Amino acid sequence: MKKESYERVKTLLSNNSLLQGLEDFYLDDLLKVSEVRTWSKGSQIICEGDVGDAVYFLLSGKAKVCLYGEGGREIVLSILEEGDMFGEMAILDDKPRSANVEATKDVECLYVSKDAFLNYLGTHHKVYIRFLGYLTARLREATRKIGGLALLDVCGRIAHTFMGMVKEEGTASTQRVVAIERPTHEEIAAMIGSSREVVSRALKKMSQEGYIKIEKDRILLYLS
User: Fold this and answer.
1) Do residues 27 and 19 touch, judged by C-beta distance below 8 A?
2) Which of 4, 66, 95, 210 would you label with 87, given CA atoms 20 to 30 Å apart?
3) Any bridge partners for residue 35, and if so which?
């Protein structure tokens, strides 16, 4: 990898929560045992049922984690953006991939093989401890989503989903309005297990009642 490319990838990798704020050698050692791979929009990065042979650090672009049901119905489990990691579950339990990951924009990832990543964790204890914290956060988020889907009406599920899309820096207690990138009605429906028509009506109601404001490329959330 050329020096300019190396430094660019290293800077992007530093946005990941496992590596953020650590000394340079943590990033350098990971880059030594990995490679950069790219996928175009619409490409399947991971397929449900495949062997889990690598972990991915998303450097740029956007992807969705999803499941496909009968008749092609899609459920979106999460949206992945720059700084996110995915593919880690299957390398830990040696079971097949549990979901699909599809690029919704052109994607660039750091690809780390299973053996290389596990060896890296074993010799870089700060990252290992952070990795345990990351898995715990994932479990908490799954619990939050399950509770939202089971206990809330459509408007509540949409609000629940939107709040999950807010970056941590946008949730300060003094901030009464936060913005998220505007998903399509189809994407929202896939995330909450509903239909586009139901979502459209719910968004209209939420907008009329002053809970959200829908703009061209973003949605403003008005926090109570």
Assistant:
1) yes
2) 4
3) 111
